[in-house]
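Let us practice reading a record.
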Amino acid sequence: MFARYTVNTNRTVVRNKCSLYKGDKDMNKQEIRYRAKKRRARALAKRRMVFLLATLLLITVGTIVFGSCFSSLAQDSAAAANQEFKYYTSIQIQDGDSLWSIAEQYKSEHYASTQAYVDELVVLNDLTSETIHAGQHLMVAYYDKEFK
């Protein structure tokens, strides 16, 4: 904005606010059409840009959602391939067997130690001590990858 000074017919100076652009009253019809066409072109370009950004945002969100679904499916199928199932079987105790020897034979990496497996055997078979006798039956836990 700048100020334009004009002199009236009574020789007084008048200060008017002006801009670099002419007002509509100072333009001819061709210039008015040209500026209206430019305004419409800028508005159209702005709408196109908003549409483009909205489309890119939608594609990005869709890719993230779609990719995460496939990622979780791949992880689930990989986990299912490595999944082991816990089973129980009954064994008959032979001469010389102890809970520790049975634990060494049946325990897997699912147990922190042999002592942890022995403790599970005691709870599973409702034993009052770690003493077992030949001919007695025990339930033992084991893991297998095959679903039975």
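A brief commentary: The mean pLDDT is 83.
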